[in-house]
Amino acid sequence: MVNVNEGLNPFQFAGTPVIQFGSGMLRKLVDVLPSGAQRILFVMGSFQRTNADAWEQVAAALSSKQIGYEIALIHHEPTVDWVDQVVERHRLGGIDAVVAIGGGSAMDAGKAVSAMLCTEPGDTVLHYLEGTPGYRAHSGRKVPFVAIPTTSGTGSEMTKNAVIAITDSFKRSIRHDRFIPDAAILDPLLTISCPASVKAASGFDALTQLIESYVSTKASPLTDALALSGIEAAARSLLPICTDASDDAALHEQMAYASMLSGITLAHAGLGLVHGLAGPLGGLFPVPHGVICATLIAEVTKRNLEQLQEQQADEAAGHGWAKYAKVGAILTGHSEQDVQGCCARLVAYLETLTEQLRIPRLGDYGVTADNLDAVLDASDNKMSPVTLDRTVMREILVARI
Ligand SMILES: [Fe+2]
Hints:
Strand order of the largest sheet: 1-8-5-4-2-3
CATH architecture of the largest domain: Up-down Bundle
Largest sheet: 6 strands, parallel
Number of helices: 14
CATH class of the largest domain: Mainly Alpha
Distance between the termini: 37 Å
Strand content: 5-15%
Bound molecules: fe (ii) ion
CATH superfamily of the largest domain: Dehydroquinate synthase-like - alpha domain
Shape: globular
Radius of gyration: 21 Å
Order of helices and strands: EHEHHEHEHEEEEHHHHHHHHH
Helix content: 40-55%
């Protein structure tokens, strides 16, 4: 992984939340709240119904410490209006911490609410969304925020941004180093009741994030070590938790660990073309983010490898090729000495996994070969080890319609 004969590129590491990881760790919630907290705001979707026993334990633990709570329900991706309304309702309510429990939408919603509770009355999250007219930098002041994911996928519990929808087709991020959650509780038992189709798409998204950040041009030895550990864990767990071991706690721990690492590596090493296409696709069509990433990763990997092979004389391209081979070796158990074989097997593995996990195609959500221009206009290769042109990007999308 680290060539001892080479120097190391400079890198920054912004840190992670305090992490409480392990089955049953939900019981640590009271411990990670700010000392003296008297009132907290939960941001969640259907957690009380889907994990009724766990919710009862949380409520009892808070009650035993005389900690009161409010609940803001989120059943869709967070919008500007939703965030503003929740913040206005609770701005003067003495909220000592925001606790998000749920999937990616709850994580983003809670992160944005915690960031907005310290702003002036009447302020709107719209002002702090990157790339919007009238954009203002956020001070970073926020109410302490605890993230408790119930899906293994986005890694949002490790990152400093929240994606907020301005309209159905226009989403932007609020972002600040201080928005990295203060604490994250990763209790894999909470992910077991997740539907298989969600486990498949979100888990494949996590694997995609690990692969893209590992081969990223911004990767460091630190993110490489984390990404490889995550890829190993995802290789062991992703397929079985979606098929014949859907209630196996140990395998859900492996997947939750992989997902957590993917959040750290994407935040520090960046992502590639899959996510460069996912942003505009998700904005223009009603395709869940996990489905987009899962459905594209095999085809993007194949086309990236074709391009890298053409450029192998180039040192950077050779490095990218070798890294893909390492991923192929881990996922397939093939000897990494056989670089060519590992790359071919990697593509075959990802294609087979796409079938085994029954990942939908883009056409299932209304994407057609005739309506790709707006997607391609807004797409980019991000930190991909190669730059694919618009023609190849179009072919990738068409192959998955
Ligand atoms: Fe993703």
